[in-house]
Amino acid sequence: MKSFYRKIELKFIDDGVDGNLVVAEAQNQVPFKIKRVYFINNLSHLGAVRGKHAHKKLEQAIFCVNGSFKLGLDDGNKKEKVALSKPYVGIYLRPGVWHTMHNFSKDCVILVLASDIYKESDYIRDHEEFLKYVKAL
Ligand code: T46
Question: How many A from CA of 128 to the centre of ligand 1?
């Protein structure tokens, strides 16, 4: 069965003792034009849970550039959990997917590339409303 989410693998350059370099190019590894970049850190509280919403139009690519966390995904029919811990492997978050982030390691840093600027009107923050929204699509 086809999955409702997909992994994105960035270009990873191993410079040995000089470290690594990881590249994300719009419309190459990332399947949309990037209009916004944000990151989330200081996730040291063990019970922290973020997300708990879906987007109507926004496309995003989400990466764990340090540490680890778990991404819960729900398309209204199926639910999946993905563990992210490699800085060059992320998830393409298409619109209409309810997502939650949890189980953060203390050193976790999440990087998100987004197809648009921040618009609260694009968020569905109520799960019942989300289920109605995806049913009507
Ligand atoms: C998402 C996941 C992966 C802004 O003012 N501008 C911004 O660009 C963002 C992202 C947020 N905000 C404000 C909105 C809220 O008042 O920052 C506050 C916290 O945002 P939120 O509770 O939506 O944060 P998360 O971590 O639950 O969700 C974020 C993104 O908002 C969301 O689009 O998909 O990361």
Answer: 20
